[in-house]
Amino acid sequence: MSFMKEFREFAMRGNVVDMAVGVIIGGAFGKIVSSLVADVVMPVLGILTGGVDFKDLKIVLAEAVGETPAVTLNYGLFIQNVFDFIIIAFAIFMMVKGINKLKKPVEAAPAGPTTEELLTDIRELLKK
Fold first, then answer.
1. Where are the membrane-spanning stretches (predicted)?
2. How far apart are CA 54 and CA 34, in angstroms?
3. What's the predicted TM-score (pTM) here?
C-alpha cells in the first residue's frame, strides 16, 4: 500500500474528521468564552473588588530603560486566563453531561442459560 493511500485512509476515517470538527468548534467556543470573561465577568469582578482592572495587575521586575520596555510579571492576565479555563471546563462538562443524558441506556442482552445448565441438558439428552 502506498504511503499516500494509507494517509488518505487515515485522514478520512470518521474519528479523525470528527476530531477536526471538534477542534475547530472548540477554538471558536474558546474565543466566545474569552470574550465573556474579558468583557463581562472581569469588569463585574473588578467592580466587586473596588474598581481593580485585572489586566493591569502586574509586578515590575525591571524598570524600563530608554528603548527597552519594562520586564513585568502579569499575574492579572494569568487570573483572567484561569477564569477562562474554569468557564470553558464547566461548559464542556455540562455539554457532555447533557449529551450523556440524551443517549439511550444500552439494554442488557437477555441472560441465557449458564454453562452448568447447558451441560446438564446435554447430559440429559445423552441419557435418553
1. 21-48, 77-96
2. 14
3. 0.54
